[in-house]
Write a structure and sequence with these properties.
The complex is a heterodimer. By secondary structure, chain A is an all-alpha fold. Chain A has twelve helices and no strands. In chain A, helix 7 packs across helix 8. Chain B is mainly alpha-helical. Classes of the chains: A mainly alpha, B mainly alpha. Chain A: Keywords: Membrane, Transmembrane, Transmembrane helix.
């Protein structure tokens, strides 16, 4: 007689089923409508042509900057909102639909339930950012081609030598679809993963969507003030013990979202190496494990 | 373990995790700042300038997005020729997005070129005042470039753009400083060939030793991509300076390959030199000689000698 499989936590198949179910559940809530808004913003940024300044090197380059800046800005905004709201919805929705009781009555470890739920949100964020990235890259590739043509025409008219035109072409293409830009999108995704895992912890304390959403945004904003908190804690002079303590509390309990603000400088044209990405990748993994573990500690004996 | 104890343990784990990651995050932040991947936190003055809403957006990881808006506002102010407003908004823009040459270049360019020209020609101020204002805005533009270069070490564009400003005949040129700026651009190792040539031209304007210059010209001209008219003309004038030839046309023919090309290149060089301020000993002599051979009189509208006279008159009127 075969014995039933032990109810071991972190079963990939079980987690996969919960994650896919959560993903489908969120998709049915029509969250992808925001992609329409993203397309409109992309279109609007593409229409900007603020300069007519009689300099070949500035011909149309502002459009590329505005596409990069607006697209990545919108991606950040949507992924943060989606990460917080989608996660905040999970537990209350399952309680309301009573699916939580059905799942927890089965031999499903609570850790698997949490990992699966968060996995579904992360999958949703990944899919959304992938679509937005494809849209942005497509528009940028097309537009940078047009800008290069316009610049070459202006440079030829101004009598620039060939090598100067070639270097201008290369510089302009750096404002288009580059690997650095894909690195920036990855950082946006990593930030949204940390936002979601923080929201998951909050949702276990409250199980109220509104509370989790509001506190989720507060945590996000405070996480962007980490520099100030750390400065207060590490400052040797001019800072009182209370201030230092407050700095330490913020620095230890709140995630540091400033790490992901590398995106700002990538939009401006800074180059990124794979080694540079390892820091944020490692920190995101750390946050994910920490937040999931803390969530599980609070959730494992929680009664509904 | 009771639920209350587990919650307490959760808080302890969160705090311990926080303490554990603190040094790692400090190290990553420091490395990113060093590599220019992370800008300094916003100053209080900037937060006040961009307003509460924008400040909140900027703090939420959207600094560049806010910089795009302040830059748009600066462009509006530029259209209205409101230069103090342009300066204020470009200052805010570069504080929000200090990396990358674009905003620094735009700000410096608005101040040193657009604002200074407007004050000199369109402000309606008395001539002395207009000149002083133009000078003040050129200085502001130069200063903006200098700050941009300091904020973007390793960038070749800003020092070369600064060098171009310092070489501009209409904007109180400073040839020695221009040489330094171009040298800085070349020292990054990323500057394209035309910047190497511009450094060389700046050295020529600053009065470098003709013998050394000629040696450098010859090595530059050895590369096919560098055989641009200005460099060929410079070789001609340097050779002329060092060993004045009996027949300038023969020297020109040797350098340019044909009389037609020699006349076209040296003629353009002669006319453009009103603003380019390059060495030009022997150029006029060669142009006159080559034009005479082709039956072009110096009074003819086709003559480069005549064209330079006309341009000189027009430029004198502008000033």
């Amino acid at each position: 007689m075969s014995r039933p499989a032990p109810n071991r936590p972190l079963d990939p198949r079980r987690i996969g089923v919960i994650a896919m179910h959560t993903f489908t559940q969120l998709v049915r809530m029509k969250v992808f409508y925001f992609l329409g808004i993203f397309a409109l913003i992309l279109l609007a940024s593409n229409l900007f042509n603020i300069q007519g300044l009689d300099r070949a090197d500035l011909e149309g380059v502002d459009v590329l900057r505005s596409i990069r800046s607006w697209s990545l800005g919108t991606m950040t905004l949507f992924s943060v909102v989606l990460g917080i709201v989608a996660t905040a919805l999970l537990l209350p929705k399952d309680v309301e639909d009573r699916t939580l009781y059905t799942i927890l009555a089965k031999p499903v470890p609570r850790l698997d339930y949490l990992v699966g739920k968060l996995g579904g949100v992360i999958l949703l964020l990944f899919a959304s950012l992938l679509v937005m990235d494809l849209l942005m890259s497509g528009v940028l590739a097309l537009r940078s081609h047009l800008v290069v043509e316009a610049q070459e025409a202006a440079a030829l008219k101004a009598g620039w030598p060939k090598d100067q035109i070639e270097s201008l072409r290369l510089e302009t293409l750096r404002q288009g679809t580059t690997w650095d830009l894909q690195g920036a999108v990855l950082l946006v995704f990593l930030r949204s993963v940390v936002v979601s895992s923080s929201a998951l912890m909050l949702s276990i304390i409250s199980t109220s969507t509104l509370f989790t959403t509001i506190t989720g945004f507060i945590v996000y904003f405070i996480g962007n003030f980490q520099e100030t908190a750390r400065a207060a804690y590490f400052s040797k002079d001019g800072t009182g013990p209370l201030e230092r303590l407050a700095g330490l509390v913020v620095a230890t309990f709140f995630p540091n979202f400033q790490l992901y603000n590398v995106v700002d400088d990538l939009i401006a044209g800074t180059t990124l190496t794979l080694k540079d990405l390892s820091g944020p990748l490692g920190m995101t993994a750390f946050y994910l494990v920490l937040h999931l573990f803390v969530s599980w500690l609070m959730f494992s004996k929680k009664e509904f | 373990m009771k639920a209350r104890h587990r919650n307490l343990l959760a808080v302890v784990v969160l705090a311990a995790g926080g303490l554990l990651r603190l040094p790692a995050e400090q190290a990553i932040t420091a490395r990113f700042r060093e590599e220019g991947l992370l800008s300094a936190p916003l100053e209080i003055g900037i937060k006040e300038r961009i307003g509460q809403n924008s400040s909140a957006i900027a703090l939420a990881g959207l600094r560049t997005l806010v910089a795009t808006f302040t830059h748009l506002q600066a462009t509006e102010a530029f259209t209205a020729c409101d230069w103090p407003e342009v300066e204020k908004l470009m200052e805010t823009t570069v504080q929000l997005s200090p990396r990358g040459p674009y905003y620094w270049d735009m700000g410096a360019w608005h101040m040193a070129y657009n604002a200074s020209s407007w004050y000199r020609m369109d402000s309606g101020l008395p001539p002395l005042r207009a000149k002083a204002e133009a000078h003040r805005w050129i200085e502001k533009g130069r200063n903006f470039y200098v700050r941009g270069i300091a904020n973007n070490p390793g960038d070749w564009q800003l020092p070369s753009l600064y060098g171009q400003l310092l070489s501009d005949a209409r904007r109180e040129p400073d040839d020695k400083a221009a040489v330094e700026a171009f040298r800085k651009a070349v020292a990054t190792g990323k500057a394209p060939p035309h910047i190497h040539r511009q450094r060389f031209f700046a050295e020529a304007r600053a009065g470098a030793d003709p013998k050394e210059m000629l040696a450098a010209v010859s090595s530059l001209l050895a590369k096919q991509g560098n055989r641009v008219p200005t460099l060929l003309c410079l070789r001609y004038t340097l050779e002329y300076q060092l060993h004045e030839p009996e027949d300038p046309a023969a020297l020109a023919l040797e350098i340019f390959g044909s009389e037609e090309k020699a006349l076209r290149n040296l003629g353009e060089y002669h006319v453009n030199n009103l603003l380019d301020r390059m060495p030009e000993r022997g150029v006029e002599a060669a142009v006159r000689l080559l034009e005479r051979r082709r039956g072009i009189s110096p009074e003819d509208d086709k003559s480069f000698i005549r064209q330079k006279e006309k341009d000189g008159e027009r430029l004198a009127l502008d000033h």
